[in-house]
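Lecture 7 notes: from sequence to structure.

We start with a single chain of 239 residues. Read the sequence below before looking at the structure.
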Amino acid sequence: MALDYYMCDYSYAEPPKVTGLKNMVRLPTYADFGHDDYLIADERGYETLVYHLASQFLKTDHKGTIVDPRLMLNKVVRQIENSSNDVVVTTEDGKTYKADYVMVSHFEKEYLGQNILLVTITDDESRRIEKQADSKTKTEVMEVLKKMFGNDIPEATDILVPRWWSNRFYKGSFSNWPVHFTKYEFDQIKAPVGRVYFTGEHTSEQHNGYVHGAYLAGIDSANDMIDCFKKDSFNQAKG
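Now the structure, written as tokens:
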């Protein structure tokens, strides 16, 4: 059971019964980049990587801080109106933004000596844990640890339980290639709808579920949009 969980549930966030073999046989990520896993230990936080990439394309000040007015954070999109001429995006604060094309995408630290333990749970168990009080979850964790290391271990000082299922931006989502899922269905997920394009790690066939999958898929999707924009501009000029 331990091997089964480590080889499947831990990596794909779902049990073997719903995970297709295509997603399990020699993962391209490990084949291409090696078998080591890395954690972000930068005290500035994970967002540092995101801002570093964004600063290569957006206007910054002399300190390297992004000041480009086109970057608008904490804007929750509530509606996208797609027409043959443009796309209008309405955010939760009631503001609207018009564009020729739109791209839709979905966006801890390792400290030595801090005695932090990470526990991964998936599927039905994750739903159960998320619904109960953190104090009860902490009690359950301590019971397991005492079975493993004896009753003389110190009590955990605190616990953090991310509520992935109830987060309105994620709703428990995680990319996994399910049983009977075909290449045709995968292509449909990332296919553009009019002037609205889609990207994210879930649109990366080789590296879905990983940060570099989102990065590489973003490049591919952006190039697809640019090609379409060029063709559209050419046809308008020709007409």
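Residues 119-172 form one domain. Keep this in mind for problem set 3.
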